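Tutorial handout. Part one gives the primary structure; part two gives the three-dimensional structure as tokens.
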Amino acid sequence: MPLVDRVAAALAGLDLPIPFPVLSVTRIFDRLSSVSGLVRAEEALGHIRSVIRERGIVDSEQEILTLLILGRDSLLSSLGASLATAFEQMRKSGSEHLTLTSPYPSTGVAVAERVAQCPHSLGQVSLAADDRVRIYLQPLNGIGGATLPIFGAGAHACLGRMIALDVWNAMAKCLAGLRRRVTKVEVKYARSNIFFMPESLKVDFE
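Part two.
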């Protein structure tokens, strides 16, 4: 979404967004990345670095790369998944009013990884200290729209939480005047181990 690219550019102090391939660089952080995925990620990073240098902002290279990578794909995926959810709810209800609940009605972040700090048992599962745990967040979508837990809490709270909520609320404000009946919603999702990322979203209206 161009809006997310403009927000990221503003955070980095840039006048123009830096081209950033979706779901490329973030794959570095997934332990299940394939070798080809890591190669594509490195190519994407190399391209972004070259753009930064062309624009004469080398002194801020690491900060800009961090801002571009940190949370951008999760923001894009959550905005897309939430819009798809909202339009599908609108279609099923037959309403002509698009309602975007606050916070997101859906999270695009499928999983989060944590490291156990001490031995722990949960049901039939026993964890040792330093075990890596993958937590699936999608079930949190089914708790009546109160999806703030997807941002985590305490030391593991999402650094981009306020940006994500501000962007979503801005979109809700822009779309508040939509008055049309939805007849069809088509959404195609990208393949990813860590994101629930819509590649395309098509909505038909009467």
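Part three, for discussion. The longest strand covers residues 182-189. The chain has five helices and six strands.
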